[in-house]
């Protein structure tokens, strides 16, 4: 599990946006890129080429779940 302290200092490598922890993924709060980075063995894989771009509906649902958008 990623600690709150680590989550507080991590950011999206592409946009420098904040990230939210969503299951085994870190999701960028940047609306334009909507990047999702996987976590393997408690290690975030923060490579842009290894990330996935979420569709708008999936990204919005995650942001609502984490109170990042209304």
Explain what the structure shows.
The protein has helices at 4-9, 56-65, and strands spanning 19-22, 25-28, 35-40, 43-44, 52-53. It is α+β, with helices and mostly antiparallel strands. The longest helix has 10 residues, at 56-65. The chain starts with a helix and ends in a 5-residue tail after the last helix. The mean pLDDT is 95.
Assign the CATH topology: N-terminal domain of TfIIb
Count helical runs. 2
Q: Total domains, how many?
A: 1
How does the major sheet shape up?
A: 5 strands, antiparallel
What does the overall shape look like? globular
Short overview:
Helix content is 23%, strand content 26%. With 70 residues, it is α+β, with helices and mostly antiparallel strands.
Structural key phrases:
70 residues, single chain, globular, N-terminal domain of TfIIb, five-stranded antiparallel β-sheet, alpha+beta, 5 strands, 2 helices, 23% helix
Fold topology:
Elements: H1 4-9, E1 19-22, E2 25-28, E3 35-40, E4 43-44, E5 52-53, H2 56-65
Antiparallel strand pairs: 1-2, 2-3, 3-4, 3-5
């Amino acid at each position: 599990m990623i600690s709150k302290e680590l989550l507080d200092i991590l950011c999206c490598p592409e946009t420098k946006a904040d990230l939210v922890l969503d299951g085994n993924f870190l999701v960028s709060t940047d609306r334009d890129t909507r990047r999702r980075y996987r976590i393997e063995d408690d290690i975030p894989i923060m490579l842009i080429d290894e990330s996935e771009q979420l569709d708008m509906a999936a990204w919005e649902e995650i942001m609502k779940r984490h109170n990042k958008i209304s």
